[in-house]
Amino acid sequence: MEFVEDETKRPGIESILAKLIYEYHTYLPVGTNLLAHLRYPQLASVLNSSFDQRPRGGSTRTRLGNFIEILACELAKKQGYDIPVLRLQYNPNPDQSMRGDDLLGFRSIDDESGKKTVLVGEGKFRSSFAASVVGEAYDDLKAKARSGAISMEFTAAILSRQGDKAKAAKIMQLRKQVVLKDKEVTQKYLLFLSTVGRPQDPFECLEDFAGELLPNLVAVNVVFKTGLQDWLDQVYNQEYGH
After folding, report:
1. Which single residue of 53, 177, 192, 239 could bond 25 by disulfide (Cβ 3.0 to 4.6 Å)?
2. pTM of the predicted protein model
3. Residue 205 DSSP class
4. What is the largest CA-CA distance in the chain?
5. What is the rounded CA–CA span in Å between residue 60 and residue 33?
6. Which residues of 137-169 are buried (b: 16+ CB within 10 A; e: fewer)?
7. Closest CA to 87 of 107, 73, 108, 75
8. Does residue 146 sit within a domain?
């Protein structure tokens, strides 16, 4: 699957994308929206700013990597997956890439009678294409598949802290089923890559893994046009008070 950017659309989506990036990186503690509503916008802004986990200037590689992770999550949402925790909000070091599954989504988790699906994704951005990048990304995804999506424990812990103990318990039960390879749970995998310029046959090297490819694997390549880094810096630098 391949998507090609139309760079003429950048001005029209800049503010929308800036808001999306801010939301993915910012955890709003309970009460700040209420403070703003009660006409204490300055206090709300100060409280919110301390929860802004967007990587700052100088962290270009991290910004690009997080951007690709966000796009992968948005694609998964369009396909009906629930992503209950946006992990970039909890990065202990925002200027460095966060460890763990780049994408962890669920489908039919609240349907007691339906077959549940767990989606694990790996995203990578490189300014120029090389087959080794595809191999590296696939190896990373395969390693996470073997571990049984360990980020499920992280997601459950965050949900429990937020008070959604019921969903946290469902995810931990799902984690056990994944480890035990329960046939009632379908595991799917997303390999989400991006580069500037259009490579030929970006996933051709996956043929070397013939016979041992992960089941239910979807590979996506996003092609951007030149000037992406400078434009993305502008998007990241937009300010939001609340």
Report:
1. 53
2. 0.84
3. G
4. 62
5. 31
6. bbebbbebbeebbebbebbbebbbeeebeebbe
7. 73
8. yes
Does residue 241 belong to any structural domain of this protein? no
Tokens (6 digits) for 79: 């396909």
Q: Is residue 242 situated within a structural domain?
A: no
Three-class secondary structure of residue 195 per DSSP:
strand
Instruction: Give the integer Cα–Cα distance in Å for 233 and 66.
Output: 12
| Run of H or E residues at 170 | helix 165-179
Domain total of the chain: 1
Cβ–Cβ < 8 Å for 95, 167: no
Domain that holds residue 15: 2-236
Confidence grade of residue 60 (pLDDT, cut at 50, 70, 90): confident
Residues forming beta bridges with residue 119, ordered by sequence position = 105, 188
User: Among candidates 5, 236, 220, 1, which has minimal Cα distance to 102?
Assistant: 220
Return the pLDDT at 213.
82
Amino acid found at 140: D
Tokens of 160: 């429990």
pLDDT tens, position by position, 7-47: 899 999 999 999 999 989 887 664 555 545 555 565 555 55
Give the integer Cα–Cα distance in Å for 54 and 93.
10
| 45 burial via Cβ count (<10 Å: 0-12, 13-18, 19+) | middle
CB 89 within 8 A of CB 24: yes
